[in-house]
Structure formats: C-alpha cells, structure tokens
Design a protein that fits this description.
By secondary structure, the chain is of the alpha/beta class. It has 2 domains: 3-150, HAD superfamily/HAD-like (Rossmann fold); 164-307, Rossmann fold (3-Layer(aba) Sandwich). The chain is built from 15 helices and 10 strands.
Length: 312
C-alpha cells in the first residue's frame, strides 16, 4: 500500500466504521460445521428452523459492544458504526439479526451474500477495519487497501476493563514490512544496524495505519489518561536500539499510543493479558499463537512472514 493510500484510507472521516462477519460476532461453529459437511441447503434449513434461538456471543462480540458503547459520548464526539457482512442469505440470516436485537447491539446496516464473498462490500461501506473468520475474505480486503484481520479462536482476557483496549504489532501491521524484511533476509544484527542508520527516516505505513489514524481521531474526542474510554498499545518484538525509529515515526504521523511494549522477542501473550487487550493484531503466526491463548487475536496476513504461505 502506498503512503498516499495510507493517508486517504476508506472511511477517513469523523466516523470509525468497522465491518464484521457474522462468524466473528457470534458463535456459529456448529452451523458452520454443518455447512461444510452437508452444504448450503442443510445450513439454510438449520438456521431457519432455529431463527428464534439466540446465538451465543463470538470472539469479537465484547469488542463490538465496547465500540458501540462509545456512541454514548456527547453528540460532538465522532461516531462509531458497525456493519454486519454475512455469507448467509437474508432468510438464513434472520437468526443473526434476531440475536443482534436481543443483545441490544446498534447494528442497522448489513450485507447478506448467499455464499458469495463479502469482501467487495467492505470498501463500499467505507470501512476502516474488517474482521472476519474467513481468511480469503480478509486477504481480499487487505488487497483493496482496508485494514483487515482473521479472527482466530481465542481466549477472553481474565482481567476485564471498562475501557476499549486495542493492541497492535508494529512491523507489517502499523508500519510497512521493509525493516522486517531486513531481519528475515539478513538477520537480527543487520536489522539493528538498519534501524540505527535510518533512525530519522520514518517507517512507511502498513495496512493498519489508516485504522490507527481513525482510532486516534476518535480517542482525541475524549479526555486523556484513565478517564478515556479507549486505550491503545504497541506490542512489538523490537528492543533497543530499534525502538527509537518507531517512536519518531509515530511522532511524525501525529499519532498517540498510550503504551509501548518493546519485548525483544519475548512471548507476547502474557503481556497482552496484563494489558487486558480486547483484541490484538499481528502478522506473525508464532505471535498470534501465543496471543490467542490469552486475548482475542486477529491475524493480519501481510508482509514477509506471510509470503511463503500465501494470503491466508
């Protein structure tokens, strides 16, 4: 994604728009397994027969609740909108909307595609972020220039907070993967030399730069510090001396992150649990495996870590 595309990301206005798939919002594991075993007709009959039975919350449900709660802020604050994108038909998707109504989620816009890809509508709805349990849909959204992540089976944090807490990896998520490529191809010593030599050159923007900017604009509408309903964190494998370029890059963008953890390769999961992340975004398969044992986790299939395995 080009630098210009980062700045002019879809939805770059006062609203924070999050598009989410039905399988990320609700627990549809049983019916999805039926779909994979017996096909679309069996799935549709199953959902229509149970359309008055409530669905259990899914991995991203607490995140959506907290996002929508931000709309309780004064009218002058930027608003949050959550869009439902589902491969269900409108008939089989009625159970989903019944569950949305029961839980009091203010979700009014939706697209039901009857098995077709939902990714074309991510850009049409001007989403800043797309969350899905379908890796192919996520890859297509990323290709279209929208921040996107595959929601993985994860464990909810044990320390619940009233704040919305979002954590990001740095390279290949907030930033481009040019430095990560140096580490991947030449080793950690070459990586540190590269970061010291280029310390005053801002890193390029990664796929989540636009979403981070939109989140920052939303956060700026609230009081700073503990009184803010939003708290953000950078959780990166970087350590000194590679930390300085990150700090200066964020400063040059005019973006604030509340916490920055430079872990030097330590497992991220326990730190994310201590932070109480409602969701964590990372491109590395190893990192997301650690993280999802502790918090809701989204895999971002972008950058050098994902090239050998394709867009997952």
């Amino acid at each position: 994604m080009s630098e210009a595309a980062d700045v002019a990301a879809p939805g770059a206005n006062d609203r924070l728009v999050v598009a989410i798939s039905s399988r990320a919002l609700f627990d549809l594991s049983e019916s999805h397994a039926l779909f994979e075993r017996e096909g679309l007709d069996a799935y549709r009959d199953y959902q229509m027969a149970r359309e008055n039975e409530l669905l259990a919350p899914g991995i991203a449900f607490p995140l959506v609740q907290k996002l929508l709660k931000l709309n309780d802020a004064p009218p002058a604050a930027p608003r949050v909108e959550v869009i439902l994108l589902s491969r269900n038909s409108a008939d089989s998707g009625l159970r989903i909307f019944n569950s949305i109504e029961h839980y009091g989620l203010d979700i009014a816009r939706a697209a039901f595609t009857s098995g077709a890809s939902t990714s074309p509508y991510v850009h049409s709805f001007a989403a800043n972020l797309f969350l899905s349990a379908n890796p192919e849909s996520v890859a297509r959204a990323l290709e279209a220039g929208v921040a996107a992540a595959t929601i993985l089976p994860s464990k909810a944090p044990t320390t619940a907070s009233g704040q919305l807490r979002i954590a990001f990896d740095g390279d290949a998520v907030i930033f481009g993967d040019e430095s990560e490529r140096v580490s991947h191809e030449q080793g950690i010593d070459a990586f540190h030399r590269n970061e010291v030599e280029n310390v005053d050159k801002p890193l390029s923007g990664g796929p989540f730069r636009g979403f981070l900017a939109a989140l920052h604009r939303l956060q700026a509408a609230f009081p700073a510090g503990d009184a803010s309903p939003i708290r953000t964190a950078l959780v990166t494998a970087r350590s000194a001396p590679a930390h300085k370029r990150v700090i200066l890059t964020l400063r040059s963008w005019g973006v604030r992150l509340d916490e920055a953890l430079f872990l030097g390769g330590r497992d991220k999961g326990p730190f994310l649990q201590a932070f109480g992340a409602d969701i964590f975004f990372d491109d590395s398969h190893a990192n997301v495996e650690s993280a999802r044992q502790h918090v809701a986790t989204g895999h971002v299939p972008h950058g050098v870590h994902n090239k050998s395995k394709g867009a997952e």
